[in-house]
Amino acid sequence: MTETREIRLRRLTMRSMRRGIREMDILLMRYVKARLDTLSDAELDVYDALLEENDQDLYQWVSGQVAPPARYGALIEDIASAPGEL
């Protein structure tokens, strides 16, 4: 059975807020609120894959401590610059 866009967005939202590291919960939920519903299906594919990555790596990428893999570069930049309060 194929997942509808609405269900996919809900699933990605839940995965964004239950990361294990509070800082990543906050950063990713800020991004979800600002941009998730505007992403194309291809962009959602990349975001879905990003959520499979380790929180320690994600935090280092978003905070600029370590350069992200090329496939996530634009997304990480977008997450880091998403509007909203931390």
Number of domains: 1
CATH class: Mainly Alpha
Proportion in helices: 55-70%
User: Structural class of the secondary structure composition?
Assistant: mainly alpha
Q: What is the average of the pLDDT values?
A: 93
- Unreliable residue runs: none
- Number of DSSP helical runs: 5
Find the CATH topology: DNA polymerase, domain 1
Protein name: FAD assembly factor SdhE
Keywords: Chaperone
Pfam families: Sdh5
InterPro entries: SDH (IPR005631), SDH_sf (IPR036714)
What would your notes on this structure say?
By secondary structure, the protein is mostly helical. It has one domain (5-81): DNA polymerase, domain 1 (Orthogonal Bundle). The chain contains 5 helices and no strands. Helix 1 (5-17) runs antiparallel to helix 2. It is globular, with a radius of gyration of 12 Å. The mean pLDDT is 93. Keywords: Chaperone. It comes from Roseovarius aquimarinus. It holds the Pfam family Sdh5. This is FAD assembly factor SdhE.
